[in-house]
Sequence to fold (221 residues):
Amino acid sequence: MAKLQQLENVFIGIAGMIGAGKSTLAKSLGEHLEIDVHYEPIADNEYLEDFYRDTRRYAFATQIYLLNRRFQQHQEIIWRGRSAVQDRTIYEDSIFAKMLAEAGLMDERDYRTYLELFRHMSNFMCKPNLIVYLDVSPERSFERIQTRAREMEQGITLEYLEALHNGYEDFISDISRLIPVLRIDYDRFATAEEMAEVIERDYLDHSFLREASRFDPVKQA
Fold:
């Protein structure tokens, strides 16, 4: 009974690099805890192919589209009032937007607009109880991208993933001050099911995890 009460209305976000295994873990965690699973909006993303084909032209539109979809999903989790796990959090979008701006692929004016919009949205968001960060090296991420062979991802370079990994390290350092983060080395576990058991155990053992104020991506800029 105590276990069920601790897991009541729990909101867990899965964070990690491209190809880190977020969807697989989200599915296993949802099944293990018997809670709703909300997957990253990829299949019906009408901007993604254009983004990979002409990043500079579609960077801002793609980031706004993803921000809108993730905000919609985030609010749906809250409105349903049921425990849930989310495949990639809305907070991670700021990593990609920042990288695009720093690489000159997003206009500085557009980046400021993106940050302001995120800040306004964040006033209406309830934070996850826990973020699970799948810590995967750029090399392993690149290997998995090549293995799953999604056509639109074939232009992703190791250099891009190295920069992305650095962005994630900064992000985790910042977000962990506001939302409890459990860092997981995926290679230490044989299966996603085994990892789900570890996450459940660690979450229940740390029921004292503190509440914190909202995440402000401006601090990332």
User: Anything to note?
Assistant: The beta strands are 11-16, 36-38, 84-87, 130-134, 181-184. Residues 90 and 155 are 24 Å apart (CA to CA). The chain has nine helices and five strands.
